[in-house]
Every structure is written in structure tokens, then in C-alpha cells.
Specification:
The structure holds two protein chains of two kinds. By secondary structure, chain A is an alpha/beta fold. Chain A has ten helices and 14 strands. The longest helix of chain A has 16 residues. Chain B is an alpha/beta fold. The two termini of chain B are 31 Å apart. The model of chain B has no long low-confidence stretch (mean pLDDT 95).
């Protein structure tokens, strides 16, 4: 349990919501007539409003970045090891905003929200949203909070795509972009993993074409398998071997199809847990947002041309054991930034954790972020 | 500041774009920015040094020089610096060519293996250990030692034109018998 008196914790936090009644035109052509964004904030916005840092989350996380809820103290924010008083992203110095994205199942308007046209949940009719759309929505949230310009936007994985997109959608509204375990576009192999996950969900008999809310069922089998696939790709082979080896749950092979190896038990546990709290329609949409993200597409495939309008300073971080978003993909971003003579530093951390390394505590990684944030002028 | 770095700083034109390969804690880049308004990037592989660079607010890129300079476009820098790093590189020729591809001019410094103290130690049957060669043979990161004459041979072979040379010992310039009395050599070169 996270003790309320822990001086390195922001303590109990409250999730908030901001409502926007001006319609949001989405990249895919659809329009959201109105929407809500769930968010949390930590620290204080200074008088000059120059110390705000936006934290963008990845696939299955939320705006609950830090601290815990008074009514549920075991629910600790997902980046609690990085963000807090005296931590690398120091809430004594920065005003940190954790923003949920539209289409999520954690409070922002999403597929389970009522469709104003029918009063029923959107379900399959909720539009496909993109990273660009999320940034548009976050910009509205920034307006709402009185933040004209972020000192920094930080994210890992899908969150890193948002941190990058911020520099393109609103170059003048972001001073530093911290892009971790990122890709400027997914490889076909990466898209393939997403497609398997989507197929698992869409072929679940309980999916009902996405209109399962009023049928009283949830496509848990599909979600389970989607999560298992994801988990395999977030860990490195090395980390998996280290953690599970070939350990047998029952000590000896069962010669049956019950759980034999520890890794099977782990995947089933993760899959089961995920399927109880995550929404299948959301999962489909966020994997699509990942697949579609490709700022170079409008520039004949040239990422250098795409990033020409970025003005921010960049810190790009990758992890050597990450094979889902491997270092060469981060180097591609760095190369494009160098072509544009942007301020950029790049760290390639030899951490064993795979893609999930961006969520873990590693002295080299966290010390570098601490030093970087420490040099941001307010 | 290290003697060769002070010399290098003098050779870099104001506002030049600099790439410092094996930049350590980034102190040269910081000096160049503060004294000559020359912006730059450092390349460094060592974790500790990379962290120092970030703390020093210097642009640093953690990539391996052995794989070339593929991050950098042709002629994208006014000056590429390789200070006391040449002797640690396995693929020396490749890196020299890459430096000349990326930079309009290159500055290279290295410990001179031709210095009399090194020659003497070898003559007495031992691998040299000195201020500029501070490692025992079994722990040295150095893999390709050369003398001033050797380096100039390589430059000729690669068609590299030497524009300036400074040979130092104990921080002082050496003009008499430089390959014997100099322990550190600094060169400014261009392609052809």
C-alpha cells in the first residue's frame, strides 16, 4: 500500500472531467458533436503558466498517472515511479497533467458513452480516432486549463506518438517533446500483431459487431487473447526467460492442456484481468490509431519533410531489448530531426525489459530524465 | 580543459556547426557554444558520459561509432571532431571516410605512439604506459595505435588533405622532432 505520508508520492488525487461542446472534426471524416476528457493534475501551475507538462498514456493506461485514489488506495498511478515530488518529473517544480484520450474506456467519451443521436451507447458507431485527433482534444483541454504552451509533452509508445504529434499539430505550443520507446510509423510486423488482436476480438461470438453493451455480454475471450498477444510483444525474450524460465507450475508435465509452464499461467492471468476492465471497442480503436499514425505519409514518405515544422527541443529514448518498437525506429526520428537541425538528444538504454522498459525504473533512464527536466527553464 | 581540446576550440570557426565524436561529458561542445556560439551534437556510447552531457545541456546521441555515421546527412556539419578516440576505433578507415562525408572539415587528435617514452618502453620489452597512454595492455580500450608518420600515411592513402597540425607534449607545442618529442597530435583536415 502506498502510505499517505510517503513524501515522494503526490498522495490522494481526484480524477476530473472537462466537457467540450464545440464539435470535434476527426481525421477520418466523422465529427464528435461534443466530448469529455478525463484528466488529473499534480503540482501547481505557476503564475507565468510556464511549468506545465502533459503526460500522454499508451495503450491500456489512463489519465491516472500518479498518486492514488482516497477510496481505492491500491490503485496507484501508472507512472508513479517517474512523476512525483522529488522524482525525475518533479511535481514540486512542474504542473503535470495526465490526460485520457477520446475513445478510451476510462472516463473520456468513448464507445461505451451514450450516442447523443440515440441515447444508447455508441458501440460500433463510435468513430475511429487517431493520434492527431487526440492531440486536438488535448489542445482543447490545455485551453481549458489555461495552458498556452507546454514546457514539455512526454509519453512512451503510443504516448510517444502523441508527444511527437504535438510538435507537428501545435509547434508553437510545446517547448520540449520527450519521445520514449517510439516509432514514427509502425512496421508491417507491428501492424500484424495488432490485427491478430483485433481478429481475436471481432471473431468472439459475444462481440456482436461491436454492439454488445445492450446484450449484457462482453467479448472477454477475444480481449483475453488480444492482451496475451500484446504481452508477449511487450516483454523481451530475455526478460521472459529471466522471469519465468521453463518452470512448471505443477513441478512435472501434466500431459494435458491445463497450465504447465509459468509463462502460460502469467499470460492467462494477464488476459483474464484485462478482460474484466478493458473495453473491446476501445481496444480496436487504439490499435487502429497506432497503425494509422504516420506523419511522413503526407510528405511522400519523408519523415524529414514531415518534421520540418517541429520547433520543440527533443529527447528521444529507446531500449535495446525493445523489439516491438526497436531502436532503429527511434533513430529514424532522430535522423529526421537532425536533417532539420532541431535540438535533440538520443539515448539508447541497454535495459532488459523490452518495450515495457519505459514503465520500469532504471537508473540510467530515470537519471537522464531527471537531468533533462532539471534543465528545462521555467 | 585538455590541451588538445583547447587547440580544437581555437580551430572551430564562430557559429560553425560541430559534430563531436566520442564527446565524453560534452565539455568541448559546451565551450564551443559558450565561446564561439557554435551549436553542435556529441556522439557518445558510454552511459555515464551520456548522462553528463544531458546534465550539461549538450545535445548528445548515444550511438556506436563503429557502425558509421548513418544518422548524419552528407556535408551536414562544418566541422567533425574526433578527439583522442581514433585509437579506440576498430574500423578506422570507415570512420575517417564517414567523417569526411559528413563534415566539411575534420579535426582529429590522438596520442602519439612514436613519442620517445613509448619507444623506450617497447625497446625495454614492455608495452608503454604514460600520461597519454594511461592503460595497462590488458585493460586498454585502445586497439589501433599509430604514430604521427603513420597517421599522415593514412591521410595520403585516403586522399585527405592536412590543413593544420599541432603536436603537443605536457600541454606545450612541439616543433622539433615532433614524432619523437610530441605525445599528442592534433590535425585539421579536409577531403582532397
Amino acid at each position: 500500500m502506498n502510505a499517505p505520508h510517503d513524501p515522494s508520492s503526490v498522495g490522494a488525487v481526484i480524477a476530473q472531467k472537462a466537457r467540450f461542446d464545440k464539435p470535434l472534426r476527426l481525421k477520418g471524416g466523422a465529427e464528435l458533436p461534443a466530448f469529455e476528457i478525463a484528466y488529473e493534475t499534480y503540482g501547481e501551475l505557476n503564475a507565468a503558466r510556464s511549468n506545465a507538462v502533459l503526460v500522454c498514456h499508451a495503450l491500456n493506461a489512463s489519465h491516472h498517472v500518479d498518486g492514488f485514489y482516497a477510496e481505492d488506495q491500491s490503485n496507484i498511478g501508472w507512472w508513479d515511479n517517474l512523476v512525483g515530488p522529488g522524482k525525475p518529473l518533479d511535481t514540486n517544480r512542474f504542473f503535470v497533467v495526465g490526460s485520457n484520450y477520446i475513445g478510451s474506456c476510462f472516463g473520456s467519451t468513448g464507445p461505451a458513452s451514450p450516442n447523443p443521436a440515440s441515447g444508447k451507447p455508441w458501440g460500433a458507431d463510435f468513430p475511429v480516432v487517431t493520434v492527431e485527433d487526440w492531440v486536438e482534444a488535448q489542445a482543447r483541454l490545455a485551453d481549458h486549463l489555461g495552458i498556452e504552451r507546454f514546457a514539455g509533452v512526454i509519453g512512451g509508445s503510443l504516448g510517444a506518438m502523441q508527444a511527437l504529434q504535438w510538435t507537428l499539430s501545435y509547434p508553437e505550443r510545446i517547448r520540449h517533446s520527450i519521445v520514449i520507446a517510439a516509432a514514427a510509423r509502425l512496421t508491417p510486423q507491428n501492424i500484424a500483431f495488432n490485427e491478430v488482436a483485433r481478429q481475436a476480438i471481432m471473431t468472439d461470438p459475444d462481440f456482436h459487431g461491436g454492439h454488445y453493451y445492450d446484450k449484457g455480454v462482453v467479448p472477454t475471450r477475444g480481449l483475453r487473447i488480444a492482451r496475451m498477444i500484446g504481452h508477449i510483444t511487450y516483454l523481451s525474450g530475455e526478460a521472459m526467460a529471466e522471469k519465468f524460465g521453463r518452470l512448471l507450475r505443477r513441478g512435472v508435465p501434466g500431459f494435458d492442456f491445463d497450465v504447465d509452464f509459468e509463462i502460460e499461467s502469467y499470460l492467462r492471468y494477464q488476459g483474464d484481468k484485462f478482460s474484466t476492465y478493458f473495453d473491446a471497442n476501445t481496444y480496436l480503436r487504439i490499435t487502429k490509431a497506432l497503425d494509422y499514425f504516420d506523419p511522413a505519409a503526407d510528405f511522400g514518405g519523408s519523415l524529414s519533410a514531415a518534421l520540418a515544422r517541429a520547433q520543440a527541443a527533443f529527447l528521444v529514448v529507446s531500449f535495446k531489448s525493445d523489439w516491438r518498437f526497436p531502436p532503429p525506429q527511434s533513430r529514424e526520428i532522430v535522423r529526421a530531426l537532425l536533417d532539420n537541425r532541431r535540438i535533440v538528444s538520443y539515448l539508447e538504454i541497454d535495459a532488459p525489459g523490452g518495450h515495457d522498459a519505459f514503465l520500469l525504473e532504471d537508473a540510467r533512464y530515470h537519471n537522464a530524465l531527471r537531468a533533462y527536466f532539471g534543465n528545462i527553464e521555467l | 580543459m585538455r590541451a588538445d581540446l583547447a587547440a580544437i576550440a581555437q580551430w572551430v570557426a564562430p557559429q560553425a556547426r560541430v559534430l563531436d565524436l566520442g564527446c565524453g561529458d560534452g565539455s568541448l561542445l559546451r565551450t564551443l557554444w559558450q565561446e564561439r556560439q557554435a551549436p553542435g551534437y556529441g556522439v557518445e556510447i558510454d552511459d555515464e558520459s551520456v548522462l553528463d552531457c544531458v546534465a550539461n545541456d549538450v545535445n548528445v546521441l548515444q550511438v556506436d561509432l563503429e557502425s558509421g555515421l548513418s544518422l548524419f546527412a552528407d556535408h551536414s556539419f562544418d566541422c567533425v571532431v574526433l578527439s583522442e578516440t581514433l585509437q579506440t576505433i576498430h574500423r578506422t578507415e570507415l570512420l575517417m571516410r564517414e567523417m569526411l562525408r559528413v563534415g566539411r572539415e575534420v579535426i582529429v587528435s590522438f596520442p602519439n605512439f612514436g613519442h620517445w617514452s613509448a619507444r623506450l618502453q617497447v625497446a625495454f620489452g614492455r608495452m608503454p604506459v604514460s600520461e597519454t597512454l594511461p592503460y595497462e595492455w590488458y585493460e586498454t580500450p585502445n586497439v589501433h595505435h599509430c604514430t604521427i608518420v603513420d597517421f599522415e600515411d593514412l591521410c595520403r592513402r585516403l586522399g585527405v588533405r592536412i590543413r593544420e597540425r599541432l603536436v603537443l607534449h605536457a600541454g606545450q607545442p612541439v616543433t622539433f622532432l615532433p614524432n619523437l618529442l610530441g605525445s599528442l597530435a592534433v590535425y585539421r583536415c579536409t577531403a582532397g
